[in-house]
Design goal:
The chain is mostly beta strands and 257 residues long. The chain has a single domain (11-256), classed as Beta Barrel (Thrombin, subunit H), CATH 2.40.10.120. It is 8% helix and 35% strand. Strands 3-4-5-10-7-6 form a six-stranded antiparallel beta barrel. A six-stranded antiparallel β-barrel has the order 11-14-15-18-17-16.
Length: 257
């Protein structure tokens, strides 16, 4: 994983293998349900994210930090089946001031990652009938709250001599996940999200960094994928909340331009 630990999803695209199986873990193809959710890439790295306006694409800070380090252009597409024939738009990545990633504390340790928001400002607009929306301040609360995660992350795993590795189709996929807000989230920057598939729920994995978790049935994003879960995509993941004054202070100026 180069400079970054396995956070919820910056991965080497060159190591992926196409497969025909499902979705975000235990999910379904999203089709046109969330047309503003897309995938961003630069060099060998890619992450999921959301268009908040025709030119503002929200993703994780560790993604934009990696994109800026490649020396290569950053590309964004909202094609639900991203591939060589998709329409890509270039953009400039910006990372939330104060972003930090302190290894090797391990996955699921919020104190090891912070200020993990990023924005890509597109060079030309992607015109849609609607876009993702930011939540009202202080609304990402309530254990057991159902959210809809949407992203382009790993849909399956392949067995290799030295362990498993993720497989990708680059199909936009969605799954229901559950908000777990408790003291383990440490402060208001992160929300914990269950990633244990089963019981009608799904999970997130590699490639889902920056993936939005919507309030069910809405275009309002509660939080976006930050770090965790375990390499097997089980347990809980930490998502950066968007309902905090700090998150709004970083994102809003891009939307005002």
């Amino acid at each position: 994983m180069r400079r970054l630990r396995i956070l919820a999803g910056v991965v080497l695209a060159a190591a992926t293998v196409a497969t025909s199986v499902g979705a975000i873990t235990n999910g379904v193809p999203d089709g046109d349900a969330h047309p503003y959710v897309g995938v961003a890439s630069s060099g060998d790295w890619f992450c999921s994210g959301t268009l908040l306006s025709p030119t503002v694409f929200l993703t994780a800070g560790h993604c934009t930090d990696a994109f800026a380090s490649t020396g290569s252009p950053t590309y964004v597409t909202v094609d639900p089946n991203a591939g060589p024939n998709s329409v890509y738009v270039t953009g400039t990545p910006y990372t939330e001031p104060g972003f930090f990633n302190v290894p090797p504390q391990g996955l699921g340790v919020p104190a090891s990652v912070g200020n993990d928001l990023g924005v890509i400002v597109l060079d030309r607009p992607i015109l849609l009938s609607s876009y993702g929306r930011l939540p009202q301040l202080g609304t990402v609360q309530g254990a057991g709250l159902s959210l809809t995660a949407v992203g382009y992350g790993a849909q399956d795993w392949a067995t290799a001599p030295h362990g498993r590795y993720p497989l990708f189709t680059f199909v936009r996929t969605r799954a229901e996940v559950e908000l777990i807000n408790d003291t383990n989230a440490i402060g208001d920057e992160f929300a914990r999200i269950s990633t244990n598939p089963g019981g009608g729920k799904g999970g997130v994995g590699p490639g889902d960094s920056g993936a939005p978790a919507f309030f069910a049935g809405t275009s309002t994003i509660a939080a976006i994928g930050s770090h965790g879960p375990s390499p097997s995509a089980a347990g809980t993941a930490y998502a950066s909340r968007l309902d905090t004054p700090a998150a709004r202070a970083f994102i809003s100026p891009f939307l005002a331009g």
